[in-house]
């Protein structure tokens, strides 16, 4: 649907009106036959029809194009009243900037931001409403620190609330202690497995060194025996030499 033509100041060219809703074009598209439509209007029309609503020429969604630039410029320059005129807004601005203004307009009806409150109020009065809204959050006047979220909470029991808070804190502390305990046990198990693995590797290395040493001692004894045999042979040879 387009913009209500009654909101506009001055004359609006016929070419800037939607051929379907007859209001001023909103988010316009143009058919090959040069008739212009609001995007929502022409898409809705083509769900049930396959021709232009003005001259009945065959058209398809794929043939729709943006409005000619000069027409788009003429459209954007049109002056219109804010949609909140009935609530007191007197702003008149160009169509190009109307959406930005209406998003920030002080006369726009917006919902209260407090959970549970269904009041719709003008943006300019929101702060005043929030200050007295029965659903506003505030601390307990008795000093327990409980945040009151609604009118029903004003009768809460401070002692019971503090006891509940204490139980929650105790439960949270127990959970954290258990988590820390499990984490420490996991780390100790990991370190224990690492130490056992390292001890096994060292033990294997020690056994290998013992084996190597044993072989070396056996080789030394063999060399010493060979040395003694060689010395005896030399002594025997020396004796035989002397006898000769």
Structure description:
There is one protein chain. The chain has 244 residues and is mainly alpha-helical. The chain is built from 5 helices and 9 strands; from the N terminus they run ββαβαββαββαββα. The strands form 4 sheets. It has a 3-stranded antiparallel sheet. A two-stranded antiparallel sheet has the order 4-5. Strands 6-7 form a two-stranded antiparallel ribbon. A hairpin with a 7-residue loop joins strand 8 and strand 9. The longest helix is centred in the C-terminal third of the chain and has 86 residues, at 158-243. 11% of the residues are buried. One of its GO terms (biological process) is regulation of canonical NF-kappaB signal transduction.
Mean pLDDT score, rounded?
A: 87
Q: What percent of residues adopt helix (DSSP H or I)? A: 40-55%
Number of helices in the DSSP assignment: 5
Structural class per helix/strand content? mainly alpha
What distance separates the N and C termini? 141 Å
Largest beta sheet, briefly? 3 strands, antiparallel
Proportion in β-strands: 5-15%
Strand neighbour order, sheet with most strands = 2-1-3
Assign the CATH topology of the domain at 3-102. Herpes Virus-1
Shape: elongated
CATH class of the domain at 3-102 reads: Alpha Beta
Poorly predicted spans = none
What's the short version?
The protein has helices at 39-48, 69-77, 95-104, 126-132, 158-243; strands at 28-30, 36-38, 65-66, 79-81, 92-94, 109-111, 120-122, 138-139, 147-148.
């Amino acid at each position: 649907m387009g913009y209500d033509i009654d909101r506009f100041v001055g004359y609006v060219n016929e070419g800037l009106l939607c051929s379907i809703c007859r209001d001023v074009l909103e988010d316009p598209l143009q058919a090959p036959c040069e008739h212009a439509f609001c995007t929502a209007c022409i898409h809705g029309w083509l769900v049930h029809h396959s021709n232009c609503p003005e001259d009945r020429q065959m058209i398809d969604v794929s043939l729709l194009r943006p409005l000619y630039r000069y027409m788009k410029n003429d459209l954007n320059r049109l002056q219109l009243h804010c949609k909140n005129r009935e609530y007191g807004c007197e702003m008149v601005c160009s169509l190009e900037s109307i959406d930005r203004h209406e998003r920030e307009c002080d006369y726009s009806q917006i919902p209260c931001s407090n959970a549970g409150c269904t009041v719709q109020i003008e943006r300019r009065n929101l702060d005043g409403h929030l200050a007295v809204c029965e659903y506003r959050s505030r601390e307990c006047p008795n000093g327990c620190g409980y945040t009151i979220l609604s009118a029903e909470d004003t009768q809460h029991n401070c002692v019971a609330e503090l006891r509940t808070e204490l139980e929650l804190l105790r439960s949270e502390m127990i959970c954290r202690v258990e988590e820390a305990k499990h984490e420490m046990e996991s780390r100790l198990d990991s370190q224990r497995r690492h130490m056992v693995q390292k001890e096994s590797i060292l033990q294997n290395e020690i056994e290998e060194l013992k084996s190597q040493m044993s072989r070396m001692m056996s080789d030394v004894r063999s060399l010493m025996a060979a040395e003694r045999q060689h010395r005896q042979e030399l002594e025997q040879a020396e004796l035989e030499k002397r006898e000769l």
